[in-house]
Amino acid sequence: MTTKEEIKEQLDKAEKEYQEAKKKLEKFEEGEDDGKLLKKLRVKLFNEEYRNEEQKKGWEEMVGKLEEEKKKLEESKERWEKQVEQWGEALRKFVGGGEGNEQIA
Length: 105
Known about the structure:
- It is built from 3 helices and no strands.
- It is mostly helical.
- The chain has one domain.
- Helix 1 packs antiparallel against helix 3 and helix 2 crosses helix 3.
- The protein is rod-shaped.
- It starts with a helix and ends in an 8-residue tail after the last helix.
- The model is unreliable at 100-105 (pLDDT under 50).
């Protein structure tokens, strides 16, 4: 049987991982080498600022890689956010209405 302390420990772990995933995504979005580069390349491609088709292809590949990295970071953040919600709900159920617990009106 799972104890309140075990649930709390799992919740704390999930919250820590969620915060870490959030930081990584924020760092990506704010970083010159990642998020800002992705935005710049998208604009340059949209405005057709490339010199030739080879440069265009290179930029498109880089945009694809950066978009994939961003997607993975977003998925990680969402996964940990759901874990926090699940463990929080489990803790609330355990504390609020588990066997042997009396609810206070």
